[in-house]
Amino acid sequence: NAGVTQTPKFQVLKTGQSMTLQCAQDMNHEYMSWYRQDPGMGLRLIHYSVGAGITDQGEVPNGYNVSRSTTEDFPLRLLSAAPSQTSVYFCASSYGGGSYNEQFFGPGTRLTVL
Amino acid sequence: AQSVTQLGSHVSVSEGALVLLRCNYSSSVPPYLFWYVQYPNQGLQLLLKYTTGATLVKGINGFEAEFKKSETSFHLTKPSAHMSDAAEYFCAVSERSSGSARQLTFGSGTQLTVLP
Predict the structure, then answer these.
(1) Beta carbons within 8 Å of A89's beta carbon, 6+ residues apart
(2) How many Å apart are CA A87 and CA A73, to the nearest integer?
């Protein structure tokens, strides 16, 4: 199993550009989520999904869109990039019900917005 | 709302010394508790978790943590540090409610440096 994969690893955008961060998992996990990691702030939840066709907002959703058309894929779209979105983005997935399950993280995408 | 506080953003220990990383949570109901580790330029991986039962939890790589309800704490320890333990460590919590969407709330992280 590849686990959770993310592309690209690195990306530089100009203010106002849009792009999609890709996330895929091959573990048949129902739950997937996107976090951003900023120095001294830990990880903050952007959006999450409890299954195909179902998404919801996390703590910091503004400026980001998600969709979940398949169990495997959960892309994150930046609509109009801003310097405040410079961060490291992690996708994660977990299996089954309950909030006690381990989340499996991808390797991250390092995004710089100029 | 739940929150997590990790005391000490940077901790340095000598190789072979005790590692103690502190985590306190704020929640009206004791949550599920996790420690994750992040090695340089990698994603996070689970070290250990507490859900129910025995309050002393053993994890991978010789780490353990003890849930103390009276102190709302879940400190991470390892008796003898190894150079390979150098990483950033995150404490996280999630609600016990059945309707929870498995959201994790993370602390701000502690960077562990191991000195030779």
Answers:
(1) A6, A21, A34, A35, A36, A37, A46, A76, A108, A109, A111
(2) 21
β-strand pairing of B87-94 with B64-68: unpaired
Q: For A1-50, what is each residue's pLDDT tens digit?
A: 789 999 999 999 999 999 999 999 999 999 999 999 998 888 999 999 99
Burial (CB < 10 A; 0-12, 13-18, 19+), residue B25, is buried
Q: Does any CB of chain A come closer than 8 Å to the CB of residue B106?
A: yes
Pairwise CB contact (< 8 Å): B103 & A58: yes
B44 touches A at CB < 8 Å: yes
**Is B101–A48 a contact, with Cβ atoms under 8 angstroms apart?**
yes
- How many angstroms separate the CA atoms of B76 and B65, rounded? 4
Please report, in angstroms and rounded to a whole number, the separation of the first and last CA atoms in chain B.
41
Mutation site, B102, B108, B110, interface A, largest A CB count within 10 A: B102
- CB contact (8 A) between residue B90 and residue A42: yes
Q: How many angstroms away from the CA of A57 is the closest CA of chain B?
A: 11
With an 8 Å Cβ cutoff, are A40 and B9 in contact?
yes
A46-83 pLDDT tens trace:
999 999 999 999 999 999 999 999 999 999 999 999 99
Nearest in space to B74 (alpha carbons), one of B13, B10, B21: B21
Q: Are strands B87-94 and B110-115 parallel, antiparallel or unpaired?
A: antiparallel
